[in-house]
Design goal:
By secondary structure, this protein is of the alpha/beta class. The chain has one domain: Aldolase class I (TIM Barrel, Alpha-Beta Barrel). The protein has eleven helices and eight strands. Helix 1 runs parallel beside helix 2 and helix 1 runs parallel beside helix 11. Bound molecules: 2-phosphoglycolic acid. 2-phosphoglycolic acid binds next to strand 8.
């Protein structure tokens, strides 16, 4: 069975002390949900302190991005070597990084390779824009993003990669894809792309999240879908009560 995974993407929210206070309150409330993998992705400056605050818990830490080089003259960037020991996961290809930082499919592919090479687990985000969605291009576009990001990645790495399907039009907008629609893209488009690349067994074993305006009131709808293995959550991961409810719903829907 694919273990559900809920990751909170804090984006550019929470200072160092707010991040630490948050996880100190969150961790005990999530302690019993061991059937669900629980991940927080703070900003880079809070990573070390959050990792330290969580060190005696089974809550995992993720970074929000990385550079593909091990070191170098890349002002402002963070190398995979710098994340080692602090983060287990790293979000790669978030639509905000694709849009505002102009990350290309090629950059994202390099980042996925670099993360894996340094023992970090990518949470690879893909998803179509509203215009692409309305033009009926979702399947081709999302399938293409998955192929491009995974180009040259061997099948034995796939157990260490999480994919997050996040339709751009649903991120932070309050509009969300229905559970059925999200499941169709995840189970249909993304898993069939993985099956073409790596065979059906691997396609069925990779964990795929939904993301985009996930909140306590719609979490059960997503998690009740057979192909959705968790969520990548922005806004609702910033409040302890909401985060706990998301994990609770995931455990309930998956019978854990
Ligand atoms: P949201 O963000 O839950 O606030 O829509 C999701 C994401 O960007 O990962």
């Amino acid at each position: 069975m694919r273990k559900p995974i809920i990751a909170g993407n804090w984006k550019m929210y929470k200072t160092l002390s707010e991040s630490v206070d948050f996880v100190r309150e969150l961790a005990p409330r999530l302690a019993s949900y061991t059937g669900v993998e629980r991940v927080v992705c703070p900003t880079f400056v809070a990573l070390a302190a959050v990792a330290d605050a969580l060190k005696n818990t089974d809550i995992r830490v993720g970074a929000q991005n990385l550079h593909w080089e091990a070191q170098g003259a890349y002002t402002s960037q963070i190398a995979p070597t710098m994340l080692q020991g602090l983060a287990e996961y790293v979000i790669i290809g978030h639509s905000e990084c694709r849009a505002y930082l102009h990350e290309t499919d090629e950059d994202i592919n390099r980042k996925v390779k670099a993360a894996l090479a340094y023992g970090l687990k990518p949470i690879l985000a893909v998803g179509e824009s509203l215009a692409q969605n309305e033009a009926g291009e979702t399947q081709t576009f999302v399938g293409g993003q998955v192929r491009a990001a995974l180009s040259g990645i061997e099948s034995d790495n796939m157990q260490n990669i999480i994919i997050a399907y996040e339709p751009i039009w649903a991120i932070g907008t309050g509009k969300n894809a229905s559970g059925e629609v999200a499941n169709a893209i995840i189970g249909g488009t993304i898993r069939s792309t993985l099956a073409q690349l790596y065979g059906n067994e691997i396609a069925q074993s990779v964990r795929i999240q939904y993301g985009g305006s996930v909140k306590p009131s719609n979490m059960l709808e997503y998690m009740s879908q057979p192909d959705i293995d968790g969520a990548l959550v922005g806004g609702a991961s910033l409040k302890v009560d909401d985060f706990v409810q998301l994990v609770e719903s995931a455990a309930k829907a998956k019978g854990l």
